[in-house]
Please model this.
Amino acid sequence: MTSRERMMTAFRRGKADHLPACPDISVMVPAKLTGRPFYELFLDGREHNGWTSATYSEAYVEAVKYFGMDGWYIYGGLKEIRPPDAPEFVDHIIDEGDKKIVRRTCSTSRGELTEEEIYFSDEPPWRSEKPIKNLKEDFERFKLWMGLGNWQWEKEYKDRYRIGDYGVYVAMIPVFQDWWFHYRQGGFEQCFMDFVDEPAFMDEVHEFWMEWALTYVRAMIAARPDEIMLGGSSASLSVSSPKIFRKYELPFIKAASKICRDAGVISHLHICGRSWELVQIVAEETDVDVMEPMEEPPGGNVDLAEAKRRVGNKLCIKGNINTFDFMLSATPQQVEEKCKHLIDVAGRDGGFVLSTGDQCGRDTPHANLFKMVEVAKTYGRY
Amino acid sequence: MDILDELSSNLQEGHADRTKQLTETALAEGIPPHDVLEKGLIAGMNIVGAKFKNNEMFLPEVLTVARAMKQAMDVLKPHLAAAKVRSRGRILIGTVKGDMHDIGKNLVGIMLRGAGYDVVDVGTDISTQKFVEAVEREQPDVVGLSALLTTTMLHMKHVIEALDERQLRPNVKVIVGGAPVSQRFADEIKADGYARDAASAVDLVRSLLRDDSAAT
Model:
């Protein structure tokens, strides 16, 4: 059975040859494996449709092969077909020796938008400036960049070959709070104050975004990825609230997962941090097929055995080993015991992908990642 | 409901304008500024802190409460100064070098201010040298170090060592926090304490400063 087949079987709550092992190694571990400065990987100058880069996505696949794990390729995307007169962001790169600063400027008919991202040599990039600073004025400019409707994308995932059968090809779309946090200056505090201080305006923003997001989901489905992941880190209850989730996220998750269900495409929701209250809502009120990472304490609040008991008949679970308190410092023996326990409580009847509670830290011992894979292949054999 | 209870209640609901008005009214009615602070605002923040710790309130709600608290304190501060009411202690907080994350630090600042402490926030990506300079300048009772990355939390040790070298360490308690940080790590780097969340940070500061005011 290929890794891709194994993951897809688990996503459909079936039993594969053995449990899939898919620790979340996104960004730092593959980057470090290359031995190159991280900014070289991200600022490679190559065409790529997705939130990272061609070089980084290749590094991820190499890491998948290195660890012998089942891959979860979330690094690609569809190329948007933009009108020829659409305003675009133009990059200006400033070399500061041990880091690169990318300043981006977009000139619209209503004025300029600017943003800035810092690319480090040994850490993931950081968005130090976001384009929407003055809420209403900049959002009008931002809409001109996004387009006011009639969004179109190419019909093929051109980087799909990279992961091949080493894992699943995942189309990704951020949920509303992730999207808003990505573009709104001022961090989480400002985002939440927007909801409180400008509720009517944020309803308009949300409506605009929903229209765009559901159009994109339909475009992604037409290109037939293995699954569609709804990226929801900012919807985590570690930073957000159930009330905001219900108002701004649930409508989209319901609609998107239904579209996926009707089209026979797996839908997958990522909410790290504290998420237990949301797990039940998602299982009961949406058509989501897979949920992750069901993070355990101290970062999260999910007990995997309880999750399996309550929602295992509705959701494939991918998770949930703590990355900073456990994976960084545990011995391989401890990792083995932990994995066996999780397999016993969540994996025996399928519908489980052995994974971590969030991204593994850059310095996670390789022995611990290898051990996860080994236990999944042996103790996790069906 | 007496006015201080009403003040506490409106603060807990995050009603900024009403909280500010009630603060002004309480002062106008001759209630001592210290009582407005302790029995109105801090009493309300203690309840918020407990609810936040117990997952009954969430970060967005705490942020609206914090804004209400700030507006009330802007009214109250001159009166506290005039009445020579001293703060419970001065806390300097910052995120260590190489780390831009600030939400945890900001939340700790909110909760500490809500508990009656003076908070000096030096920001993010703060080098060891800048922390030391800030401690010399601000003379805090406690320094709170925040990190969200396993790679940056190592700078916490450097800050503690630098404070030692400058002979500032005996005069200041150092507490640490952030997602990758743990009690074990705090012990290894000889910090005075570790707080797993903002509400716990208040309890920790209270115990380190031997502050007997109401705990969360």
The interface with chain B takes residues 120, 122-123, 126, 128, 187-189, 192-193, 195-196, 237-244, 274, 298-299, 301, 324-325, 328, 361-363 of chain A (CB under 8 Å). Chain A has two domains: 3-81+152-378, 83-149. Residues 83-149 of chain A form one domain.
